[in-house]
UniProtKB/TrEMBL annotation:
It comes from Thermoflexibacter ruber. Coiled coil: none annotated. GO terms for molecular function: metal ion binding; sulfur dioxygenase activity. GO terms for biological process: glutathione metabolic process; hydrogen sulfide metabolic process. This is Glyoxylase, beta-lactamase superfamily II.
Length: 474
């Protein structure tokens, strides 16, 4: 029997490959399914099942394409939802034969009503591992406030109560030596405080995970679970619906999105459509020159999450500017969160645009040392901190204004177009995204701080606050 975790850092998501005696199963596959098919083929195995722990919100699963290409059966836990594709709706306790191994479905409502875990039993009948989806993370559990965005009467309090019962009655009685394989790790918005570890024993989780504390009453559990939850990204409900109803084939999405457009063709499409120009190069390269009105979300970061947070319309047509050779990667990572309407990329990248003599724009940038010199001459300069409110209140430059990128429409209200602002985040990724979006909306007096708060603090030239308890947070 083989078990392999396939972890994708930018989504903090774990998919799983299980194999026994020539039969394989994939748990919570990503949108691009060819790697799973290739893995099984290389090992001489046939993919028999696609186990889905729930209707995912933070990414579009590859279940539909994988089933079409392999003939595998899609399996969900008990649900009244009608899917737009053929699926087996399993029962609590149902056993699925996989080669000489077995997989047991354990219905664990709470994160969502259909949420289920899959218990792996080896060829000798020993329970070896449990794939917990968003029911149980390492150090945390799944947030219970997502399903209500799709089904209104499923309140977060009601779901939190269901999750308490699922954990106490279905998970905690299991053996301590079980390996827990969750769907997400640190960085995911599906929980509050996930560990960087991506697996652990259930016994250790019983000792260290607050949610498995046997002394917590249901009321205490609900209060603890709901305290500190932030608003989930706006694309989550849209991804849920795609996962329930089905979607366009990834092959068609890639074919459409990786269409090479010459400089002139790119310019024509940009002017004749409502397409958004998305520049995925590094913040440093973008600052030196970019196509006017394009926005920067760098591919080498939490790209998909920021796309989903900052581009409100999941059906938005997108034109891509990318580093050479990374165009398909960009289209794939857009599709992972349901942005299927990339309509082409700039052939030759920004350098081709620049060489053609067409108009370009730049973002002024200063180092932390230069910012200190500017502030020494004018102590009243405006410093804009676009980190999350929790980061800001933990530690920030005295008198800096907090304008979180993840609430950019609210944050824009804090910016006066007539004034100059020096913008920073933690390291420079988010601040460039913030500046590019505002610049595209007519804000011309924004200066990016290279290296962000880290460079500012390390310069030793700024007074940094200790923790301040917030009264209000964006």
């Amino acid at each position: 029997m083989k078990v392999e975790q396939i972890y994708t850092g930018c989504l903090a998501q774990g998919a799983y490959y299980i194999e026994s005696n020539g039969e394989a199963a994939i748990i919570d596959p990503l949108r691009e399914v060819q790697p799973y098919i290739d893995m099984a083929k290389k090992r001489g195995a046939k993919i028999k099942y696609i186990f889905e722990t729930h209707f995912h919100a933070d990414f579009v699963s590859g279940h539909v394409d994988l089933a079409k290409k392999t003939g595998a059966t899609i399996v969900y836990g008990p649900t009244k939802m009608k899917t737009g594709f053929e699926a087996l709706i399993g029962e609590d306790g149902q056993i699925f034969e996989l080669g000489e191994a077995k997989v047991k479905l354990i219905h664990t409502p709470g994160h969502t009503m259909e949420s289920s875990c899959f218990l792996l039993i080896d060829e000798k009948g020993k329970e070896k591992a449990i794939f917990t989806g968003d029911t149980l993370f390492i150090g945390d559990v799944g947030r219970p406030d997502l399903a209500q965005h799709v089904i209104a009467d499923l309140t977060e309090e009601k779901l939190a109560g269901y999750l308490f019962d699922s954990l106490r009655n279905k998970i905690m009685p299991l053996s301590d030596d079980l390996i827990v394989y969750p769907a997400h790790g640190a960085g995911s918005a599906c929980g509050k405080n996930l560990s960087k570890e991506t697996s652990d024993t259930l016994g250790n989780q019983k000792k260290t995970n607050y949610a498995l504390n046997p002394n917590l009453t249901k009321e205490q559990f609900i209060k603890e679970l709901l305290t500190g939850l932030t608003t989930p990204p706006s694309y989550f409900p849209k991804n849920v619906l795609m996962n329930i109803q089905g979607y366009e084939s990834i092959d068609e999405v890639l074919e459409k999105g990786t269409k090479a457009l010459s400089v002139n063709a790119f310019d024509v499409v940009a002017n004749e459509t409502s397409a958004l120009i998305l520049d995925t190069r590094s913040a440093t390269d973008f600052a030196k020159g970019f196509i006017p009105n394009s926005i920067n979300i760098g591919i080498d970061g939490s790209f998909a999450v920021w796309v989903g947070t900052l581009i409100p319309d999941i059906k938005q047509e997108i034109l891509i500017v990318a580093d050479k050779g990374r165009e398909q990667e960009v289209v794939t990572r857009l599709a992972r969160v349901g942005y299927d309407n990339a309509i082409g990329y700039l052939e030759g990248g920004f350098e081709a645009w620049k060489a053609s003599g067409k108009e370009i724009d730049t973002i002024p940038t200063v180092s932390a040392e230069q910012l200190a010199e500017i502030r020494a001459k004018n102590p009243n300069i405006n410093i804009l901190d676009v980190r999350k409110a929790s980061e800001y209140y933990s530690e920030h430059v005295i008198d800096a204004i907090n304008a979180p990128l993840d609430y950019i429409n609210d944050s824009m209200v804090l910016v006066d177009k007539k004034k100059t602002y020096y913008v920073h985040c933690a390291g420079g990724y988010r601040s460039m995204t913030f500046v590019s979006i505002l610049k595209a909306r007519g804000y011309e007096n924004l200066v990016n701080v290279d290296g962000g708060f880290s460079a500012i603090k390390n310069s030793g030239k700024f007074k940094v606050s200790d923790y301040v308890c917030p009264t209000t947070m964006l």
